[in-house]
Amino acid sequence: MRSLILIVILLSSITIIGQNFHTEFEYEPTGITIKNSYPKGGQKHKAFNGKEFIYVTFWTCISNDTASTMELEIDFPADSFTLPSSPGTNFNVSIPNDEMKLEKESLPNYGLDITAFLEEKINKKSNLRATIVPFSSHLFYTVVISDRGVNGPLRAGYELKDGKIIYKINDFDLQCGRIISK
Predict the structure, then answer these.
(1) What is the dihedral of CA 113, 119, 125, 127, to 10 degrees?
(2) What is the top-level taxon of the source organism (predicted)?
(3) What is the pLDDT of residues 45-76, one digit of tens each?
């Protein structure tokens, strides 16, 4: 029995290590590729005011595979929202100003100084404005914050729908931005 458990754990870890992204979307006619990471974190954080909450850190890579420059615009309000799968749990989404780098992928929270970020940005609106030059990519963090944990895994990532950027968290779509081709 122990051998079987060890084999299952070993095979699972090999499978997970071989997967670099949770999701990858290629939008052929637009030349845009979006790659979304698995979550890191899921830890409690106690703010200076004594309030506790849970955070999860993700990173995303948006690639421009065209000969034109693209402008990326993402906005998240300060207002909380709930997910149909987690009624009664309030969520906020925020984008740190720090740019993600691939060499930070193995670090806790993907190398983001989460404590400083949370103390500065909790419950505030956030946005991202980036220019993606032809045949290059922009990598950035997204932090999902909730007032309590959820049952089961939290999966999230950016997608394009009808020309708009949405942030999908489990079964909930949050329209949050656009990509403009110049």
Answers:
(1) -20
(2) Bacteria
(3) 888 788 888 999 999 999 999 999 999 999 99
